[in-house]
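Hello again, I could really use a second opinion on something today. My current little project is about how a certain protein chain folds up. You're getting the sequence in one-letter code plus the fold written as tokens. Here's the protein in full, and shout if anything looks odd to you:
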Amino acid sequence: MSDILDPKRQEKDKKKQNSKRKKELSDWRKVLSLPEGRRIVWRLLGISGLYRDPMTGNSQTFYNIGAQKIGRWIQDEIFEANNQMFAQIQSEAISAVKSQEEEQDE
């Protein structure tokens, strides 16, 4: 059995973690490279209530704060994978809303 305090094991574990993290960020970049992926991510951020006040005056507040934590995690992942992508996602979402509003006005 290997000792977790062994420097060689620690180095090996660190490399394994770094490799895993690089793969995760690569996965995010792939998702964010697709318009469909960006739309889904924007929906998830909206569902999380990231930009809403979580306070309700009752126990629903705790649920809302938990949902916002997931939204913040998603946002942090986006920024780490590609710090310019969030602006693109936001811009595309705003354009889609404007387009829908124009269609309704016709």
